[in-house]
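Lab meeting, item 3. Inverse folding demo.
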C-alpha cells in the first residue's frame, strides 16, 4: 500500500517481532479513522449544499423524522467498527503478553537516573545487551519512582513500578542501538536516563558474555578482589573504613600482627589470609567470635590471590610486606 509506505516513513525502524502486530493495528485503525472522517465531512458538506434555502422556499424547513433503518445501520456500523478495532489489535496485544518458552531472562532494576540489567549469571550491566533473533523476557521493578521502559524501535512499552514486578518481552530482528526512554526525569541530573538496548549478533553477544563471565578479564587483580569482596558477602562482616563490624575491618590487615584467642600472635601475610578464608576457625582473632564460614570450594587460589591483592591496597604495609615476600 502506497499509503502505509508513506506513513511508515514517520515511523521508527521496526527492529522487533512486535512491530508487525503494533503497526498493522495502527495502520488499520488509522485507515478506518480517515475513511470515517471523509464520510462524515463529505456528508456534512453535501447535506449543507443540498439544504441551502433557495429563493421561494418556505420560511421554515419541516422537521425531519427519524429513519429507523438508517439508525439501525449506524448502530450496526459502529458495532462492526469496534469489532474491527478489536480484531486487528488483539493478536499483537496477546503476543506481547506472553513471552515464548525459553526466553532469555534479564532482571531490570530501575532507579531514577541509573538502571541495572542483571543477567542470568549475576552480571549487572548499565546497557541492555541482547542477541539478535533471540526472545528476551524482562522482569522489572523500580527502587524509587514509577516509570516506563519505552523503546519505540522495538514497539516496547511497559510501566515499571516500585514494589511490584512487571514483565515485558521482545525479540530484536536486526542489530543496532535503540535508545530507552523512561518517562522519568531525574531531579539530580535534570535529564532523562541515557541507556539503550544494544542488539548484537549472536557472535558479538557470546564474545561479550565471555568477557563478563571471566571476572579476571579487563580487571587488575586488586579490582577482582574488590568485586569478590562485594559479591561474596565479605562486606557484610568486614568494613573497609577501619570500623569493626562482625569481623575485623579490612583496613590495615595485610602485613599487620594480630593477637588470637589462644594468646599467640599471627602476621596477616598471604598464607595466613588464605588460611583465614579456607579455614577461618583455625585461629580466631582476639575480640571476635568464630562466625565466619569457610570459603573452601567457593573461592579458588586465583580468587584468594585477588582478595589478598585487594587487602594489600587497603594496608599501609601492603607494599613493604609484598617486597619481603
Ligand atoms: C559472617 C561474617 C563474616 C563473613 C561473611 C566473612 N567473614 Fe572474615 N571474619 C569474620 C570474623 C568474625 C573474623 C574474626 C574471627 C576469625 O578470625 O575467624 C574474620 C576474619 C577474617 C580474616 C582475618 C582477619 C585478620 O584481621 O587477621 C580474613 C582475612 C577474613 N576474615 C576474610 C574474609 C573474606 C575474604 C570474606 C569473604 C570472602 C569473609 N572474610 C567473610 C567474619 C566474617
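The presenter then showed the designed sequence:
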Amino acid at each position: 500500500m502506497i499509503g502505509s509506505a508513506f506513513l511508515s516513513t514517520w515511523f521508527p525502524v521496526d527492529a522487533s517481532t512486535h512491530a508487525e502486530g503494533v503497526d498493522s493495528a495502527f495502520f488499520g485503525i488509522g485507515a478506518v479513522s480517515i475513511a470515517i472522517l471523509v464520510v462524515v465531512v463529505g456528508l456534512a458538506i453535501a447535506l449543507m449544499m443540498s439544504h441551502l434555502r433557495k429563493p421561494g422556499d418556505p420560511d421554515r424547513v419541516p422537521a425531519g423524522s427519524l429513519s429507523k433503518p438508517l439508525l439501525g445501520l449506524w448502530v450496526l456500523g459502529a458495532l462492526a467498527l469496534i469489532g474491527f478495532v478489536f480484531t486487528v489489535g488483539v493478536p499483537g496485544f496477546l503476543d506481547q503478553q506472553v513471552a515464548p518458552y525459553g526466553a532469555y531472562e534479564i532482571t531490570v532494576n530501575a532507579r531514577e537516573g541509573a538502571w541495572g540489567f542483571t543477567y542470568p549469571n549475576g552480571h549487572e550491566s548499565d546497557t541492555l545487551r541482547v542477541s539478535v533473533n533471540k526472545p528476551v523476557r524482562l522482569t522489572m521493578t523500580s527502587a524509587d519512582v514509577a516509570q516506563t521502559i519505552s523503546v519505540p524501535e522495538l514497539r516496547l512499552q511497559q510501566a515499571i513500578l516500585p514494589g511490584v514486578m512487571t514483565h515485558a518481552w521482545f525479540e530484536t530482528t536486526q542489530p543496532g542501538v535503540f535508545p530507552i526512554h523512561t518517562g522519568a526525569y531525574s531531579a539530580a541530573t535534570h535529564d532523562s536516563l541515557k541507556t539503550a538496548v544494544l542488539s548484537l549478533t549472536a557472535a558479538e553477544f557470546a564474545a561479550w558474555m565471555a568477557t563478563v563471565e571471566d571476572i579476571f578479564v579487563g580487571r587488575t587483580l586488586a579490582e577482582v578482589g574488590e568485586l569478590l569482596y562485594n559479591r561474596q558477602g565479605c562486606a557484610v562482616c568486614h568494613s573497609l573504613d577501619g570500623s569493626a563490624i562482625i569481623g575485623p575491618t579490612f583496613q590495615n590487615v595485610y602485613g599487620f600482627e594480630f593477637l588470637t584467642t589462644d594468646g599467640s600472635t599471627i602476621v596477616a601475610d598471604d598464607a595466613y589470609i588464605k588460611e583465614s578464608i579456607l579455614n577461618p576457625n583455625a585461629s580466631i582473632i582476639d575480640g571476635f567470635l568464630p562466625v565466619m564460614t569457610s570459603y573452601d570450594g567457593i573461592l579458588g587460589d586465583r580468587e584468594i590471590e585477588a582478595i589478598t591483592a585487594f587487602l594489600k591496597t587497603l594496608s599501609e604495609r601492603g607494599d613493604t610486606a609484598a617486597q619481603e615476600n
